[in-house]
Inverse folding.
């Protein structure tokens, strides 16, 4: 166990967690909604500190991050647990394990310094906190991130964005990039499909973007739930209202977990969303889970190809110091680590 970093004692044995936007009030002996943070005698503890359930070497494009150190690898880590209960979760075996297996906490204990040392041995340029929601293993992620920064590695979050301002502010000094899932644009969708609300997610996108952390956004388009053209337009407008420079990844849904009765997203729906995103003013709009030209990066000025991708692999990178080789226009992103 490891004492939680952000919580307040309420004087009657209860505590209020301040890591995610649920701000759970937890009685003695009970856990937060994520099922990995527990009140013991008026002290809130993380039950997953250093308890890794997954660590892999992934292309940074898999996060997906297309404008952050393209062609490099990220040392990707996760613990069990999540503060959402998405009906379509592809990683439910680990994200929902504590809820669905009687509070069971799985994982191999790895100290922050050992994790960073392993990441450096693999040749990765970054550490990605991913697969499950990294906010629920906030204390461990923060400790690892500080060590990684000292060792010259970048830090990347892949998050649902449902974190508090306090958590965001603690992360910002050591976070280089984040991909945030904007799962829909209505509270009805968030309540029914993921068990949350949308406003804190939009606040997180704006907070990180304003602070200079590189931000990309992913929306999984689910047939019959968030694929209405008007809703897709509102989603794109919400992103462009924060910054037109934020890349938007429109991802294809495949049946998973508790949404096995729905079909995969028609490619035409994704292409329409891409058209809408560009129409409202987003400079970079990508199609996910659909191999093809929808994964390529084009210059926002002359529309010439600057990065060619196939799946998660960069086949060709024509950028010259972050600029288009054809017209010289700047292509927004983080293209190299500082010396």
């Amino acid at each position: 166990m490891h004492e939680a970093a952000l919580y307040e004692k309420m004087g009657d044995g209860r505590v209020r967690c301040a890591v995610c936007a649920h701000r759970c009030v937890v009685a003695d002996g009970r856990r937060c909604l994520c099922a990995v943070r527990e009140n013991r005698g008026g002290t809130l503890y993380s039950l997953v500190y250093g308890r890794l359930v997954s660590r892999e070497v992934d292309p940074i494009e898999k996060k997906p991050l297309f404008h952050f150190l393209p062609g490099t690898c990220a040392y990707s880590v996760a613990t069990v647990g999540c503060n959402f209960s998405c009906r379509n979760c592809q990683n439910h075996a680990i994200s929902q394990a504590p809820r669905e297996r009687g509070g069971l906490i799985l994982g191999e204990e790895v100290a922050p310094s050992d994790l960073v040392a392993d990441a450096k041995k693999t040749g990765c340029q970054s550490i990605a906190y991913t697969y499950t929601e990294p906010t629920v293993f906030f204390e461990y992620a923060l400790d690892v991130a500080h060590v990684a920064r000292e060792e010259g590695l970048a830090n990347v979050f892949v998050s649902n964005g449902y974190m508090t301002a306090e958590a965001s502010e603690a992360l910002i000094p050591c976070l280089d990039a984040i991909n945030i899932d904007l799962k829909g644009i209505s509270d009805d969708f968030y309540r029914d499909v993921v068990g949350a609300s949308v406003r804190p997610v939009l606040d997180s996108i704006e907070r990180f973007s304003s602070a200079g952390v590189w931000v990309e956004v992913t929306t999984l388009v689910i047939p019959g739930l968030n694929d209405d053209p008007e809703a897709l337009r509102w989603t794109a407008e919400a992103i462009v209202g924060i910054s037109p420079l934020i890349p938007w990844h429109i991802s294809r849904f495949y049946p998973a977990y508790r949404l096995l009765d729905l079909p995969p997203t028609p490619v035409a729906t994704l292409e329409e969303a891409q058209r809408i995103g560009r129409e409202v003013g987003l400079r970079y709009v990508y199609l996910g889970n659909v191999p093809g030209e929808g994964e390529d990066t084009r210059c926002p000025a002359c529309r010439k190809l600057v990065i060619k991708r196939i799946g998660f692999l960069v086949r060709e990178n024509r950028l010259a110091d972050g600029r288009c080789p054809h017209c010289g226009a700047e292509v927004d992103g983080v293209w190299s680590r500082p010396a």
Remarks:
- The first helix runs from residue 92 to 95.
